Structures are given as C-alpha cells and as structure tokens.
C-alpha cells in the first residue's frame, strides 16, 4: 500500500488564521512554539566569526560542542559526573532526530516494530513511527496528571515489541511533568530504550530542571535542543546524550547518512551552552506572559491552570460554551485575533483542550487582552 502523509498539522489552521488576521492590528499568533525573542548577541557573533565554513563539520559534533554539552549537563542537572564525550552527539535540531530514531533503531533490532509515545504529545513521535513503517502505540498520561506516562497501562505484548519509549517532560502541549526515574526503571526492566525529550527542561516552574540522566545513563538517551532555551530554532542545534552503546549506534548511522550540524551553528551552540544568564531572562519573559494570558482567558470565561513547565497554556474547553476545541479556537480568533492550536493536533486524547504558545511579546498579548475584554460572554 502506498504511504499517505496526513496534512501537516499547522496547515489545518489556515482558516482560523484568516479570521484572526482580519482584526485591526493583525493576528497574534500563539499557535506554533517558535521563539520570537532574540538570541544573545555573542551567539549571533559566533555564527559569523567561527571560520568553520570551508571544511565538513564532524557529524557527531566537534569536541568543543560535545565538551560544552557534557559540562552543561553537569551544571544544569547536577549530575554526579560528566558523561564521556563519546556518549554525546549533535543533531540538526531535534525534530529530525525524533522523526528518524525509529528508522535507525529498527536497523539495530529489526524484530521490534513498535514506538511507545505519550498519547497527548508533539506529533513527530508518532510520525517517526509512521515513517519507519512501525506501529505507533500511545501511552496515556500518569493517572490524574497532565504529564508523565501511565507505565502500568502499557500492554506486555506492546512492551515486548517496543523499539523505544518516548518521554517528554515538561510536556508539549500539556505542560505536565513526568517521573523520569520511574520511566528509566521501566525501560531497564523491560529492555526498552527510553528516549527523554527534554527541550523545555530549563523552563521547569515546579522545582529544578530535571533530566533522565539524573537516574544514570544505562538504557536511556536524553534529547536536548538549543531552539527553545537560546531562541535558536533557526540555527538548528540539538544533541542527544546517554547510554554509550545507543549513542554510538545512532552516531554511526547518522554519520553514514550525512547528517551534520553546520560548523558556524556548532560554534554558536558552544557560546549559547556556556551562558545561563540569557536563559534566566527568557524564563522571566515566559512566566510573565503565561500569568498574563491565563488571567485574560480566565476573565473571558476560560479558566486555565499555569503549567508545571514549558511555555504553553493547555486550556480546557468549557463544554457548556463550545462544542469542541475547534469552535473555541474560532472564537479566540474572531473575538481576540488570537491564533491557537486545537488540542487534537497532539492526539485524539487532546481534543478537549486548546494549546496557547506564549511566544509573543507582552504588547501583542495586551492587544488580545483589549479585544477579548470588549466581548461579553454572558
Ligand atoms: C517536544 C518537542 N520536541 C522537539 C521539538 C523540536 O525542536 P527542534 O527541532 O527545534 O530542536 C519541539 C519543537 O517544538 C518540541 O516541542
């Protein structure tokens, strides 16, 4: 059977975008989690001055980048000891990594064909399974929580066929945190590698940033990105680190496939990883925006709790007011010029929510506040 791609999730928002754009002052786009704030000047400077344009970069990342990652992991997550640089490698932003890991792991364990992933999540976990011809099996959130995984709900037959388990804490879209220690232990006891997507770790609000690596590297791989922490989504620097054998297998296949982070991007990454001050500044911006918009939406009749981590509001649809998340998103666009993502873009289990990405500056959010404040909602 010919493989058929679904529509790209955000292309489905075109109609809502037109509605929002009709407002004087234009649309306030909080649909996609693309950073709008500038990266530090020294990081941009490094892009232009690395002198690394001529030669091919190392596919795994050069030593300065891998050393920088190992040092950052110790500093940020208080790891007892640094990982050897051979247990750290670069990727071209993490989306391509997420999409390609099942395909690569299938080369390692061809008898396994299943990708376990959070039921409400970043769409690329399931897409990576589809692209590899694998089964994508959703795992519900931890009971009574927005984040984490209900490990007890994984059927033994699915665990036996699993190539990997994806974890994402803090979660996009729900903002919930998971129990990374329990997930690592589950993976080890079932012989299933655990891949922990931690690109929002430094935007953890409920306690310190967490990494699966705090529970040891065996059988786990932490996946990290500079896109969100350093506003570098356009530069494409990510990395993965953890279990020596898994990292080496992935690194070797990726080298053959010609995947490389460009040298200037690596140089920028080294500077970005050495600095935590800009991350503190960014944290303050997201906190202010999250609190402000939660207040605005509450006044508009859509109460929402602040997330445990990340920069998204996961807003439940008041069922007495709207039939579903698309109808609610339409009202946000029509009344506030605000573009948000209906929750089913993140899996069927997300259908009762919309996701609001707080990637717009306060003056744009204030515009939404003014517009929604003018609307009576009985
Ligand atoms: C959970 C999650 N993982 C991975 C990514 C990919 O980020 P990048 O490819 O920019 O590293 C995103 C981006 O939105 C994300 O939300």
- Globally, the shape reads globular
Terminal-residue CA separation = 52 Å
What ligands does this structure carry? pyridoxal-5'-phosphate
Largest sheet: 7 strands, mixed
CA radius of gyration is 21 Å
State the helicity in percent bands.
Answer: 25-40%
Oligomeric assembly:
single chain
Poorly predicted spans? none
Describe the model.
The chain is of the alpha/beta class. 39% of the residues lie in helices and 14% in strands. The protein has helices at 14-21, 41-49, 63-77, 94-108, 124-131, 156-161, 180-190, 226-229, 244-257, 263-273, 277-299, 325-336, 362-373, and strands at 28-29, 88-91, 114-118, 135-139, 162-168, 194-197, 220-225, 238-242, 312-316, 338-339, 341-342, 353-357. The protein has a 7-stranded mixed β-sheet, sandwiched between helices. Strands 9-12-11 form a 3-stranded antiparallel β-sheet, covered by helices on one side. Helix 4 runs parallel beside helix 5 (124-131). It is globular and about 60 Å long. The mean pLDDT is 96. The structure holds pyridoxal-5'-phosphate. Residues 33, 93-95, 98, 122, 168, 172, 197, 199, 225, 227, 233, 238 line the site of pyridoxal-5'-phosphate. Pyridoxal-5'-phosphate is lined by residues 33, 93-95, 98, 122, 168, 172, 197, 199, 225, 227, 233, 238.
